[in-house]
Amino acid sequence: MNSNNNTTISSIYEVCIGVPDAISAIQYWQQFGYRIGEIGELTATTAYQLYRVNSPLQTIRLYHQNADHGLIRLMIWQNPTSTGLGVSSMKTKGNRWATTYFWNIVESK
Q1: Strand, coil or helix: 69
Q2: What residues have CB less than 8 Å from 100, skipping those under 6 apart?
Q3: Percentage of the residues of the chain whose pLDDT score is greater than 90
């Protein structure tokens, strides 16, 4: 195989973050140079097939400069299954997590 044709993803392609409000989250990430990319929606049926969550879903991919990995996908569930992790510990065996707490940055303006 020609190494120039290698399409293997060797690092984290994107981090998915569930957010209750897309506008606040977009404003936060724009402060770090991210910009809005593709916006998509899933029906509750399709979201259940993919994520086992019976709720319509809107997603917004955020790009950073010319990066092709390390992207962010905001996920806005119409009917979230819980309030999320908030600022509690995310230490879970077998999972990779990335997070940031941003309310203080947004509110400081």
Answers
A1: coil
A2: none
A3: 38
